[in-house]
């Protein structure tokens, strides 16, 4: 009996694998046309001043509006695009779109003239020889101030090939853009490399923020505190990711964190919602303090 149920499981597993590899192939086939057909969307999530609740900028987060399926999350197609190399075209589209959108809000929404924009880069993009020229071209065609642009790269990707990272980041920084280490604390940064790499911001991973103020506080708080002082010592900005509750916000204020991002203030929103959201924020003076 054990044997036959084992066999059934194996069959089931094969079918699952078959189905999922079909879905993967299908997505990889459809993705190039998705760009042409305008099925990709950028959603924007506010980066907020923890003291005042004011939006300082937005992070651009891609989605795929697949006909008959709905909004597909980046976690479900970015890894596939990364595997196939399609990420380079997707990334170019996201960067061009996000810079143009940000520049539009800066020039049309009252009080938004200094708005910042953050864009994610993947491993394959960082290795791509055309990256720096692509960023330069997107800056030029959007007219966006490079000093208000930050490129987010995960810790693991940066540390994976420090020599290439150092070279590419140096050239990106020469364009005037900032570089943030995304999901900081989940990878394996060497502190000496961290000092050498020309980064400007550490984004504390949401898993650490999650623990603040609750049952896991005594585990999470020392880590968050250590990352904040490390950033200070290195002259870097810090952003606390994934802030969801008032308790977390209270602890972050005690730790003197300056910038945050998370559902507590706002979820990522479609392009059309950003200008009205900014205008409403301006009218109400400040966002909720929690
Ligand atoms: P990330 O860059 O670390 O982005 C933060 C993720 O956390 C986003 O998920 C965001 O919606 C989510 N988030 C924000 N606030 C909260 C919160 O309070 N609680 C929780 N639980 N989650 C929160 P999203 O949009 O699904 O993106 C997932 C990942 O996909 C991103 O992680 C990034 O690594 C990647 N990604 C998104 N857009 C792009 C892109 O244009 N290019 C590349 N290469 N990667 C992208
Ligand atoms: Mg990010
Ligand atoms: Mg992150
Ligand atoms: Mg992430």
Automatic annotation (TrEMBL):
Residues 24-282 form the EAL domain. Keywords: Coiled coil. The keyword Coiled coil applies. It comes from the Bacteria. Signal peptide: none annotated. The keyword Cell cycle does not apply. This is EAL domain-containing protein. It comes from Cryobacterium tepidiphilum. The lineage of its organism: Bacteria, Bacillati, Actinomycetota, Actinomycetes, Micrococcales. The chain holds residues 585 to 874 of 874 of the full protein.
């Amino acid at each position: 009996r054990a044997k036959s149920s084992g066999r059934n499981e194996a069959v089931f597993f094969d079918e699952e694998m078959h189905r999922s590899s079909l879905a993967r192939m299908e997505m990889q086939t459809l993705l190039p046309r998705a760009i042409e057909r305008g099925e990709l969307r950028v959603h924007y999530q506010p980066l907020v001043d923890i003291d005042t609740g004011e939006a300082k900028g937005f992070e651009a987060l891609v989605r795929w509006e697949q006909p008959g399926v709905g909004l597909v999350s980046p976690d479900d197609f970015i890894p596939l695009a990364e595997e196939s190399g399609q990420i380079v075209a997707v990334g170019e589209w996201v960067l061009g779109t996000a810079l143009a959108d940000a520049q539009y809000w800066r020039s049309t929404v009252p009080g938004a003239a200094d708005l910042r924009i953050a864009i994610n880069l993947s491993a394959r993009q960082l290795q791509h020889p055309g990256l720096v020229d692509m960023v330069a071209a997107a800056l030029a065609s959007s007219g966006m101030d490079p000093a208000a642009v930050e490129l987010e790269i995960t810790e693991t990707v940066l540390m994976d090939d420090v020599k290439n990272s150092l070279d590419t980041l140096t050239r990106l920084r020469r364009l005037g853009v900032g570089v943030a280490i995304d999901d900081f604390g989940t990878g394996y940064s060497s502190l000496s490399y961290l000092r050498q790499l020309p980064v400007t911001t550490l984004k504390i991973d949401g898993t650490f923020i999650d623990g603040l103020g609750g049952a896991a506080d005594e585990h999470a708080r020392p880590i968050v505190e250590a990352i904040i002082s490390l950033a200070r010592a290195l002259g870097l900005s810090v952003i606390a990711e994934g802030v969801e509750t008032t308790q977390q916000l209270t602890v972050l204020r005690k730790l003197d964190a300056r910038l945050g991002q998370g559902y507590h203030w706002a979820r990522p929103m479609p392009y059309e919602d950003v200008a009205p959201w900014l205008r409403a924020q301006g009218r109400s003076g400040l966002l909720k303090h929690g």
